[in-house]
Predict the structure.
Amino acid sequence: MLFNKFYRYLSKLPTLIHHQTRKLSTEKIIQDQRLSNITVTSFYCQTAIEQLALKQSTRLSPLTMMYTGKNDDDRHLLRSAQYLHKDLPIRLAHRITDFRNLPFVVACNPLLLELHEHFIKIFHTLHSFPPIKTLEHEKLYTQLLQDTLDCSSNTLPLLVEGFRESQRYIKQETLVRNFLDNALTFRLAIKMLIEHHLELRKTKPNHIGLICTNFSPKKHIEASVEYVQALCHATYGIAPDVTIDGHVNSSFPYITPPLSYIVPEMLKNAFRATVEYHRKSNGKLPKVAVTISVDNDELLLRIKDRGGGMPSSLLNKIYDYHFSSNNLSDESSMFSYTDFDNHLYDQLAKRNTQHRMSGYGFGVPTSRAYCEYLNGSLTYETMASIGTDVYIRVGLLTSENRIVRL
Ligand SMILES: Nc1ncnc2c1ncn2[C@@H]1O[C@H](COP(=O)(O)OP(=O)(O)OP(=O)(O)O)[C@@H](O)[C@H]1O
Ligand SMILES: [Mg+2]
């Protein structure tokens, strides 16, 4: 009975959430009785959020996720859904609390308000799903997770633009940094956890859910280089070559989404610096060099360019969100951010100009937040008028000393 009711609601969900993501329309919300109960303005009636925000979420180690992988009778799907059913609302409650702790003038920004409402809506949808006891329930819940993922894919521009618009009202830089670090790593974690669950249903060679059991850093870097070279050619008509050395034959279990963001972002910065610094010299562009190093605990990638480096005054700013030496004009589309998957080659082939080499000031701080989330770090060494080395460190899933938890 409860599930039938929920199923009817579920069929309407993508439309409901999409309304919210696209445009904040007060009329629409009021028209829909159900939604009118769960907006930001009904702040005081949301005790479930307050209660769950007091709980700690359970961050799983991917190694545990890998070993509890698959059972022939699909019990693993049930266990995975039950975990998400309990944990996702707690994580969402924490993020909603973060919105509530923002200064009033920032929280009132229409784009941030829209995002806040989106989170509340998802929270209520996931939290009100009845307990999952059978594989039938699990199927319904999985459909809900897929819809949640689809509906949330366009939320990054809201976050980026919302904070850009409210920047002039912000007095405490650390507040913004902490909020954005948490919000971005939350997006990453939710995406990985949901995708892992969805992938558990499929049989893909060398994969357990989202975890690739023989991840090759070299192959991953080569794919990123191909993408960034195409983007660089489309932007400047020229692109540097790349060498890859070090532990090129290494492979180990890993989850690709964070590196699929970090590596292209760091390559884009190195390519841009190289092209812009040497453009006028008419000579051949110096190569960008990537070195791979793997030990028992971490994967370390060094990306070295000869793109003129940075003065130390600039180096202090690059970790700030929205800092860019290539400020985009205001008329630039707000839907043009690089996100986990939207840098696919076919989009470039269609000459989609949405993707840019630089300009938002999100590449470095987001990559650093992701590295730290994976028990690693992102550091820069730069030599003015020479070039820059970026060190990307992430903990290995198999490490006993640096346990990574999602
Ligand atoms: N390898 C590098 N060489 C020289 N300058 C760099 C390098 N990497 C980063 N920077 C400087 O740091 C700034 C911030 O980098 P970040 O990647 O965060 O933003 P962006 O590249 O301007 O925009 P986007 O968000 O699109 O990546 C850049 O604008 C650039 O000035
Ligand atoms: Mg960048």
User: Anything to note?
Assistant: The beta strands are 207-208, 211-215, 242-246, 252-255, 288-294, 298-305, 377-383, 387-395. Residues 213-395 form a domain with the Heat Shock Protein 90 fold (CATH 3.30.565.10). The chain has 16 helices and eight strands. The radius of gyration is 22 Å.
